[in-house]
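User: I'm curious whether this sequence folds into something compact or stays loose and floppy. Could you predict its structure so I can see for myself?
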Amino acid sequence: MKLGALGEDRLLNRILLHLPRVRGGKVFAGSADDCAIVEIPRSKKYLVLKTDCVVEGVHFTHGTNASDVGWKAMMRPLSDFAAASALPQFALITLIVPQQTKVAWVRGLYRGLRGATNRFKVSIVGGETSNTPGPIAISVSVIGFVEKPRAASRRGGRSGDDLFVTGHLGGALKRKHLKFVARIAESRWLTKNFSIHAMMDLSDGLGSDLPRFARASKVGFDIELENLPVARGATVDNAISEGEDYELLFAVSPSNRKRLEREWRCNFPGLPLTRIGSLNRKSQVANRKLPRGYVHFQQPR
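Assistant: Here's the prediction. I'll summarize afterward.
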């Protein structure tokens, strides 16, 4: 069987079966979540780790401004930190480029990387370089911390929870995917003021990410398609299937809905927050079928 027949999620399930399991409750969130979140002995915080990459022809096209590529390469793992409500501190960069790449392009790439790290006070502390016949690939690993009471993962959603998303969905491939800002400030505000049961970032599209979210929490979901916050110029299908939105999807008790919506408008007046549905018990309500989002190894970007 080839990877194209398997797809990302099924491939990961097979790989994870053969990884050694850490015992003793030392892992809060592992390889199936947005970030790895692990215990630090005698600390009130968890250690948070994430690695991500961008590949030419998949995450950006040939000729894309190098600074934009660097910005996106850094913001992608920082968006996963937002999903964990974690604060990033250090980054490692692995640069894999053909030898004919112009030095000016690499300098532009690092301008973008530094711009993104400056936004969240992250220090680039090392990395690696390697030659390749192509395409260009940049891998970014980020390390940071989150207070134990504020750590978020995909696993805590409960039947009856409201589902909310930040911002707008769809149309990101036209420009937003190169310019987005990780929702770290918003996620930190959420976990400071509310009990967020589960949270993730939307990178592969609602059609792929929401089922993952529900599976991790062992619940079902019901989506109100007419309430999706569709971006200007996009369609509902774009909002579900395109991906690259990098917005937050989270679950919270419906008892918090009115206060959440009211206080969000006061604190983030320029950013919409939309209730798009709820979680439910799988045995009671069948999931609404969604068009599929992006699936690695099976679709071109």
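Summary: Confidence is low (pLDDT under 50) at residues 283-287. DSSP finds nine helices and eleven strands in the chain.
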